[in-house]
Give the backbone structure.
Amino acid sequence: MKILFLGSSHFSKIVLEKMIERKIEVSCVITQPDRPSGRGHKLAQTEVKSFAIERGLPVLTFDKIRLHIEEIKKLDFDISVVASFGQILPEEFLNLKLCINVHPSLLPKYRGASPIQSAILNGDEITGVTIMKVAREVDAGDIIKQEKMMLTKEYYREAEEKLALFGGDMVSDVIEEYEHGQISFVPQKHGEAIIVGKFKKEDGKLDFSCSASDLVNKVRALSEEIGTYFAVDGTIIKVEKLIDVSGEYVVQPFVILNNKKHFVVGCKGGAVEVLVCKAPSGKSISGRDFLNGHNELISKRIDNA
């Protein structure tokens, strides 16, 4: 059973790595073209491309896959597997062979670009992975396999890693089952679909009229990729780690506690402590160290409250 793999992100790379580990035969990899990256805007490969080259797998990079259908027809594969590829697949491609997708949510919940971040942001305690048949409508295809995974206090990248490993094992199982004619397709309940899009920089602003748990969840979901922040006296504070300390401190909402040892801010019904934030130099430091260098912020009120 020869697999054509389509993916571009870190999530994709982990799925592909797990498939190779499971001895799945990947005959070719398709990924996004090299893109400018970093301050120097140097061209950078996707993680999938780098991994595939390292493992000696044939790699094709297509900016618009719909323009390369004839080329794809000449490839030797029995089924295609998609994991965070980054392009809408045209009907001409879907009609070639069975195409299945590794999606990190319990569909129809969280169709779209940010299923993992959305689950964390909403405080979900259970998430999972769905292996589905790819359809024209985004993430709306029939379900082949679906399994749950607990979410505890993971931040986005840790959750992504766990779900990708989980998904890599699941899709490997599905490929083996398909080879023996053992898979089935169950239509999704489309009326229960929740659609999620990409997050923007402004989505990372912390609003202290929210509860402590909501603030912590936002930092868990968005701090590593989008960035989470608030401002005091015009100073932007980028928050990387935040905990709920509502039972330990009493402080007014939007106000920084008068305590040099703990960077605590009041919020709706409680308080949160900044454990790690970024200094103006860009270095990650503890909230305590940040306050030691910015004593003038103690007892101040958060901007735009």
Residues 186 and 198 are 28 Å apart (CA to CA). The longest strand covers residues 235-244. The chain has two domains: 2-196, 201-297. The radius of gyration is 22 Å.
